[in-house]
Write a structure and sequence with these properties.
Layout: E1 13-16, E2 28-31, E3 39-44, H1 53-62, H2 64-69, E4 72-78, H3 82-89, E5 105-107, H4 112-116, E6 120-121, E7 126-127, E8 129-134, E9 140-146, H5 154-166
Parallel strand pairs: 3-4, 4-5
Antiparallel strand pairs: 1-2, 1-5, 3-8, 6-7, 8-9
Length: 184
């Protein structure tokens, strides 16, 4: 099954950094069904220890309390191993690490999930930069895939999430507090 907006999001069960306190207890599995009843921002990034990726990962982490206030969880994914994720999570920001990130990362080491979400570069085996918003019933509501050299805007992600949560018709440049479109 390939990811398609308006359809159930492709299911997954992946090893994660969730709850890990050391490399010895890495690998707790996370599945899409764990997020039933919540909104989920599920995003893919190319590789650990790269340059644009940590800016996005930290920016989402910096806004995690706001997102949780919108009944939303965040989950990051790449085709790196969970051990690579753990090492990166324990590397200081000054050394290109993401120490202090407050949500889990999952490992799509088999590349099946990146393929299902349409972000796998088959030649390199590396996921591209894709972000997906999944509603509390598991339906994919938003998908954006960008070039690897361009980071995504957390402000825009939050705006789109809030627009989706209205359930209404939101015009271009809609922001919370602005009127929704009405059909007469």
């Amino acid at each position: 099954m390939l990811a398609k907006v308006g359809q159930p999001a492709p299911a997954f069960k992946l090893k994660s950094t969730k709850g890990a306190t050391s490399a010895k207890n890495l690998g707790a599995e996370i599945s899409l069904s764990d997020y039933k009843g919540k909104w989920l921002i599920f995003f893919f990034y190319p590789l650990d220890f790269t340059f644009v990726c940590p800016t996005e990962i930290r920016a989402l982490s910096d806004r995690l309390d706001e997102l949780k206030g919108l009944d939303t969880e965040v989950l990051g994914c790449s085709t790196d191993s969970v051990h690579s994720h753990w090492a990166w999570l324990n590397t200081p920001v000054a050394k290109n690490g993401i120490e202090g990130v407050k949500y889990p990362l999952v490992s799509d080491f088999t590349k099946e999930v990146a393929r299902a979400y349409g972000v796998l570069d088959e030649a390199s085996g590396i996921s591209g930069r894709g972000l997906f918003i999944i509603d509390p019933t598991g339906v994919l509501k938003y998908a954006v895939v960008t070039a690897d050299n361009v980071g995504r805007s957390v402000d825009e992600t939050v705006r789109v999430l809030q627009a989706l949560q209205t359930g209404g018709l939101c015009p271009a440049e809609w922001e919370p507090g602005k009127a929704l479109l009405t059909i007469t």
